[in-house]
Backbone:
């Protein structure tokens, strides 16, 4: 039977270092099709003897960037695929991809409800696709990103987020740094908790939609926290990260 | 075409992590137990929990939590395979065989399919054949402890021969049907059947 989602061979067009452990790979797709912000691609590596490894990676770019996608990938200690991507892959190499995949953790700019985005670490990637999509189409839907990182250096897309949120666009970004903070840090400095959620969510009113992505403990804390603040569970969509997710 | 593609400099350092005959194509072995779900974890108090068998059965049945625990249970050791590529070998469960639940209700001969329904609104569908003959159970203990909420507790359906999204978390019952009725992920681009050995991940696979 013919697969609806065919594997295609994508060329690595650019590699950008985002943080000490995170890189963005720009991949040119011969059969690119527009994705919905929040979707992912499957990436497959094949060894000379036919052994294959696959992983799913969220798309970081918006659908307005045609012909190619950005995948932002964190290098996991001992990660078979992420360590290859970080340590071996160079511009001009090829990888196999199929997608876009996923129809639930997605946001389209036509939706007019205010948006609460909550990210932990590289969980910001699919939310960045939403932010870029929102910005590319000129949406002014009130949007707040609450983004938890370990240290200042670990913040992915920091400058772009700063730029986008300074443009009177209705986007506001709130950082929390859980491990260490610069001397002049004015953002939050603790794990996401109920008070922080209330602070950030309140100005959005009571009709917002929430997207939460990150490691399981953060997603559990944020999703359960919103529900306990009275947010209906069906307005909270979650995506959790596999390899480091809970016990 | 893609059969001849190789990734420059890739040799695969984790290929010996599990016995090849137990690791389906495209999967890797993990030792922890990742959590995936589309929304917040539901917390239903035990006195409000029940499990139902309904639809095409001779008699619809409903058990309270206390009644459910009195049904004959079994210990299971199974390998599980998530569509997000991780597999976990030799997971240990205690639960009630779906056969036991269906026998109590009496299956209408017209029933061919079922939909599992859950707290939080999640659903998943499969053929009745996938859950009978000792192939599936409703698990409520994992690795010797009550099943944790983020893993689907108080009880989840476990259908180990299919990708793990079929093993519905927070399951509250099964509805038996004459015709197939695609569930949550099955209507959002994932495969209707979900056999990991055939790599039936997405629609059309």
Residues:
């Amino acid at each position: 039977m013919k697969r609806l989602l065919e594997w295609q061979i994508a060329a690595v067009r650019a590699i950008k270092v985002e943080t000490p452990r995170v890189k963005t790979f720009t991949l040119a797709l011969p059969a690119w099709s527009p994705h919905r912000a929040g979707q992912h691609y499957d990436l497959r590596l094949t060894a000379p003897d036919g052994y294959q490894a696959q992983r799913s990676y969220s798309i970081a770019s918006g659908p307005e960037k045609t012909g190619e996608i950005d995948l932002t990938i964190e290098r996991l200690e001992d990660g078979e695929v992420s360590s290859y991507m970080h340590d071996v892959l160079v511009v001009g190499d090829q990888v196999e991809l199929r997608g876009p995949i996923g129809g639930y953790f997605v946001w389209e700019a036509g939706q007019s409800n205010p948006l609460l985005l909550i990210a932990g670490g590289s969980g910001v990637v699919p939310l960045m696709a939403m932010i870029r999509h929102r910005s590319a189409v000129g949406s002014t839907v009130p949007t707040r990103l609450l983004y938890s990182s370990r240290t200042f250096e670990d913040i992915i897309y920091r400058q772009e987020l700063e730029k986008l949120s300074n443009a009177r666009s209705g986007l506001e970004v709130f950082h929390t740094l859980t491990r260490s903070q610069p001397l002049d840090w004015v953002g939050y400095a603790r794990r996401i908790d109920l008070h922080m959620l209330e602070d950030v969510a309140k100005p959005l009113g009571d009709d917002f939609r929430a997207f939460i992505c990150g490691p399981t403990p953060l997603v559990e804390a944020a999703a359960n926290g919103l529900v306990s603040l009275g947010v209906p569970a069906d307005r909270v969509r979650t995506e959790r990260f596999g390899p480091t997710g809970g016990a | 075409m893609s059969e001849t593609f190789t990734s420059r400099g890739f040799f695969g350092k984790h290929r010996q992590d599990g016995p090849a005959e137990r690791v389906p194509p495209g999967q890797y072995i993990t030792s922890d137990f990742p959590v995936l779900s589309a929304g917040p974890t539901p917390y239903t108090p035990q006195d409000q929990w029940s499990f139902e068998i309904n639809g095409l059965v001779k008699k619809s049945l409903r058990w309270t939590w206390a009644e459910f625990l009195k049904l004959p249970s079994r210990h299971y050791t199974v390998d599980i395979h998530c569509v997000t590529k991780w597999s976990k070998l030799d997971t240990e469960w205690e639960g009630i065989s779906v056969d036991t639940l269906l026998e109590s209700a009496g299956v209408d001969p017209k029933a061919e399919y079922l939909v599992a329904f859950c707290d939080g609104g999640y659903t998943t569908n499969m053929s009745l054949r996938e859950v009978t003959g000792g192939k599936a159970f409703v698990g409520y203990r994992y690795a010797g402890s009550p099943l944790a909420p983020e893993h689907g507790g108080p009880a989840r359906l476990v259908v180990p021969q299919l990708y793990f999204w079929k093993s519905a978390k927070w399951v509250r019952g099964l509805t038996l049907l004459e015709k197939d009725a695609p569930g949550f992920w099955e209507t959002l681009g994932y495969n209707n059947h979900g056999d990991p050995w055939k790599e039936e991940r997405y629609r059309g696979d």
